[in-house]
Amino acid sequence: MDLFDFQIIAEDPTGARCGILRTPHGILETPNFIFCGTRGSIKGLTIAQVKEAGAQIILANTYHMHIQPGEKTVETLGGLHRMMGWDGPMLTDSGGFQVFSLQYGGVVREIKSCRSLPGKKSLIKVSEEGALFRSYYDGSSRMLTPEKSIQIQRSLGADIILPLDECTPAHLDNKSLRASTDRSHRWERRSLEEFLRSDTGTQALYGIVQGGTDESLRGESCAFVSNESFFGQAIGGSLGINRAQMMDVISMVGAMKHPTKPTHLLGIGGVSDILHGVRCRMDTFDCVHPTRLARHGGALVPREIAIGSEHINLKNAKYARDPSPIDGNCTCYACRTASRGYIHHLLKSGELLGGQLLTIHNITFMMRLMANIRTAIRQKNFYQFTQQNIFPVPI
Amino acid sequence: MDLFDFQIIAEDPTGARCGILRTPHGILETPNFIFCGTRGSIKGLTIAQVKEAGAQIILANTYHMHIQPGEKTVETLGGLHRMMGWDGPMLTDSGGFQVFSLQYGGVVREIKSCRSLPGKKSLIKVSEEGALFRSYYDGSSRMLTPEKSIQIQRSLGADIILPLDECTPAHLDNKSLRASTDRSHRWERRSLEEFLRSDTGTQALYGIVQGGTDESLRGESCAFVSNESFFGQAIGGSLGINRAQMMDVISMVGAMKHPTKPTHLLGIGGVSDILHGVRCRMDTFDCVHPTRLARHGGALVPREIAIGSEHINLKNAKYARDPSPIDGNCTCYACRTASRGYIHHLLKSGELLGGQLLTIHNITFMMRLMANIRTAIRQKNFYQFTQQNIFPVPI
Question: Known catalytic residue: A93?
Fold first, then answer.
C-alpha cells in the first residue's frame, strides 16, 4: 500500500473541499494549516507545547537547515522528525524561496511594494544549472540545483517535499516571466527525475505552479504540474502587487489546477486570505504570520473582539490592567492561565514568555479556525461561514 | 492555626538539616532551591513547564515589579500568584539589592573584583529615611524606604517577604561597615513595625543578617535577627572578595545564626556552594545561576559528565553531531526528547528553544540535587554525599 494518499471526502457548493491526506507520519484532515519551524523549531515553543496547542503538521525551511546545521548533521541526528521530536506530518520547501528572497525581498514586501530589497545581495548568479548564493552564516558560496535540493530534502526526511523553482518578483516583464516559468518547469522536471531516482516511497513530491499574475502562463503551469507525476501541487510564484491581485490570482489558479491532487498555497496565512483560498479549493496553507504576529504582541481573535481587524495587540496600554484572558471562549493554555494584563507586562518587560503565550494562543486559534472550516464544508454552509468570519481588511 | 510554620525533622552529624516549611501556598521541604522569576516570569518557560520540571518555590524581585508593571497593577491582576499562575510558595525581596547593585555592581562582580560598576549611577542618595534612586524604565526618581518596601510587598502578595537593608560592597572600611550594619538594623526594625502594623498572617517576614566579612558585626547581626520577631532569617550583605572568603563567612554565620528559624542564603546557586551552605545549616537558596547559565548554553550535569566543572556548554562544537541527551540518567523533558546536537543547533541558530530546553534541564537538575541532599541528610551520610558531589572549583 502506498504510504501517501489523498481523498476528497466532502465538497461544498462554493467548491471548498475536505480531504484526508495520508502520510507516513499520520493522517492530516484538510483544509489545514502548516506552522513554520523555520530553523528546526517553532520559535519559542517545545514540540510538546506545539502539540498541545493542536498543530497537526509543521514545516522546516531547507535553506536554513542546509546552512546550519547542514543536512548531513540533521541526518546524523536521525532526520528532522527525530531531531525535533515531531512525529506528525512535516513539509520542507526546496530552499529556492529563501535564496531568491534574499535578492528580491520577502512576500509581504513583494506584495506591498514590488521593490527589491536594499543592501547586500546574497544571490550571486542564476543559471540553467541552478542558483549560486552566498551563505549568510559563513560567507561561503553555495550552489543550489534541482538535484541538490532533492538530495538535501532526502537527508532532512520530511514527508512532503518541494522541487526547486525560480521565485521571481511581481514587476517582471512578460518575456522574463515566460522565460522564468519555463525554467521553473525544467527545474521541476529535473527535481522529479532526481526524486524518482531515489524514491523509496517515504516522501512525496509536490509540483509548483508558477506563472506570476499571467493567466495564460498560470494555465500552462497548471497543465505542466497536472501532467507530471507529482503527488500534489503547490501554488507558488508572485501573487501580484497588492491584495486584490493576490485574491484574483488565487481564484484563477484555483479554477485551472489539477482537480484532485492535494494543493498547498504557499505563504498565505491571514484569516480572510485562507477563507478565500479554501473557496478556491486549496487544501493546506503555511505562513509565519500566526507565530510571528505572536512574537510582536498580536493575538488572533474572533471578529467580535477585534473590531475591523483579525488581531489585537497586547502591547497596547489599554490592556495593562485588564484581568480578562485574550479570548474568554478560547481553551488554550494562555487563555486558561494568563490575563491580558500579565501578557502586556511580559511584552513590556521583554520577557519571552509573552510571545510564547501568544504563540500558543495563535496556533490554537488557527487550528480551531481550520476545524471550523472543515465542519462548515461538511455541513455545506461554507459560504455563510465566510460571511460570518471574513474581515474587511483594507486592500 | 498559624499559616506559617517551620519544623526541623532530621539532622545530620555535619549540622545539615531537613525541615518542613509550611506556607499559605503549600509545604516546602528543605533544603530547597528558589528559582528566580525576576520580572514575574521564569525566563522562557510557562508556569506549567516550571512545575513539570519540579520547582517548588519561586521568587520575584520587588524592584523590577515596582518599576514595571507597578505593584498596584499586580494587585489589580490578583497579586503575583494569580498573575503568574503560580500556586506554590513564593518569596519577594525588599528591592534594596537591585537599588544598591545599580550602584556597586552585582554579587558576581562584587566577589570577583570588589570594584564598583562603571557608567551611570542609578542610586541617587542614601539617607536614614531610605534610598533615592532613578527608575531605569522612565528616569523618574523614586524613594525606597523600609515602610514602602513592605507596602509594595503587601501588594505583590508573596508568602515570604524581606525587610529593606543596605547592601554594601566588600571593600567598605570598618567604620562604614559598622554604620551600615547599624542602619540596616534600624531599617529592618522599621520594616518589622510596618509589617506588624498590617499583618493578617498571610505573609511571613524574614530578618536579614548583615555585617559583611566582620565576625563581630555578623555576630551582632545574628543576635539582632534572633531577638526580633522575624519568622525566619536571610543571610545577606557582602560575603567577601573571593570564593574562599565567601565560604568562611557562610561558615561563620552558620555557627552564630538563630538555631531553629528557617534560614535563607541569598544569591548562592553553585552546586558546591549549596553543599557548603547546607553543611552550615542553611535551608533555602536562590540564584539566577541555573536559569541564566541555561540561556547561555550551559547544562548542569553530574561530575562524571563534566570533568572539573559543574556544567557543560552545549555551544561547544564537539556537541554538533552528538545524538545523545544531555544526561542519559536525567528524566527531564529536554533529556527525554532532545539530543545535544539539536540543542547545539538551536543555540547556534539563536532559537529560543535551546535556552528553554536547558532551563527545563537545569531546574530539574537542581531539584534532583536538593532531593538527594535531603535524602542524604535523613540517612545521616551528608558528608559522604558532599565528597561524591563536590567539585574542585577554582577559588
Answer: yes
Question: In terms of Cα–Cα distance, which of A107, A105, A130 is closest to A115?
Answer: A105
Do B362 and B281 fall into the same domain? no
Please give the residue of chain A at the shortest CA–CA distance from B71.
Answer: A321
The verdict on B78 and B191 lying in the same domain is: yes
One domain for residues B277 and B347: no
CA distance B76 to chain A (A): 7
- Give pLDDT tens digits for B343-366: 999 999 999 999 999 999 999 999
Res. B70: pLDDT tops 50: yes
- For residue A124, pLDDT over 50 is answered with yes
* Nearest CA among B172, B113, B342, B200 for reference residue A41: B342
Output the nine-digit C-alpha cell for B357: 530546553
- What is the distance in angstroms between the Cα of A104 and the nearest Cα belonging to chain B? 23
CB contact under 8 A, B321 and A356: no
Least trusted range by pLDDT, from A97-106, B9-18, B368-377: A97-106
CA of A330, closest CA in chain B: separation in Å? Answer: 17
The verdict on residue B24 lying in a domain is no
Interface test with B, best of A38, A46, A64, A343 (most B CBs within 10 A): A46
Domain count, chain B: 2
Chain A positions in Cβ-Cβ contact with residue B353 (cut-off 8 Å): 41, 43-46
Give the structural domain span for A312: 295-389
pLDDT digits (tens, 9 = 90+) for A23-67: 999 999 999 999 999 999 999 999 999 999 999 999 999 999 999
Report the DSSP pairing between strands B311-313 and B298-300: antiparallel
Q: Does B48 touch chain A (CB under 8 A)?
A: yes
pTM: 0.95
- Measured between beta carbons, the chain B residues lying within 8 angstroms of A85 are 337-338
Q: What is the dihedral of CA A114, A117, A122, A125, to 10 degrees?
A: 40
Domain of residue A247, CATH code:
3.20.20.105
* Domain membership flag for residue B3: no
pLDDT, one tens digit per residue, over B274-314 is 999 999 999 999 999 999 999 999 999 998 898 788 999 99
Do B269 and B303 lie in one domain? The reply is no
Vertex A93: Cα angle to A89 and A97 (nearest 5): 155
Q: Are the CB atoms for B313 and B301 separated by under 8 Å?
A: no
C-alpha span between B235 and B251 (Å, rounded): 11
Whether residue A134 lies within 8 A of chain B, CB to CB, comes out as no
**Which residues in B lie closer than 8 A to residue A344 (C-beta atoms)?**
69
| Same domain flag for B98 and B158 | yes
Q: Which H or E run includes B274? A: helix B271-279
B333: helix, coil or strand?
Answer: helix
Determine contact, residues A319/A343, Cβ cutoff 8 Å.
Answer: yes
In a domain, B99, yes or no: yes
Residue B319 DSSP label: G
pLDDT digits (tens, 9 = 90+) for B20-46: 999 999 999 999 999 999 999 999 999
H-only helix segments in B40-168 = 47-52, 62-67, 71-76, 79-84, 96-104, 107-113, 146-156
Calpha distance B325→A25 (Å, rounded): 23
* Same domain, yes or no: A338 and A282: no
In this predicted structure, the answer to whether residue A346 has a pLDDT above a threshold of 80 is yes
- The answer to whether residues B250 and B213 belong to one domain is yes
User: Which cell numbers in the block locate residue B353?
Assistant: 528553544
pLDDT in tens, A250-275: 999 999 999 999 999 999 999 999 99
Q: Is the domain of A379 the same as that of A317? A: yes
Q: Is B333 on the interface with A (CB under 8 A)?
A: yes
Provide the angle, in degrees to the nearest 10, between the axes of the packed helices A271-279 and A382-389: 160
Inter-chain touch A341–B41, beta carbons under 8 Å: no
Q: In which residue are the cell numbers 532569617 written?
A: B233
Residue ending a domain, among A286, A307, A323, is A286
ipTM higher than the 0.85 cut: yes
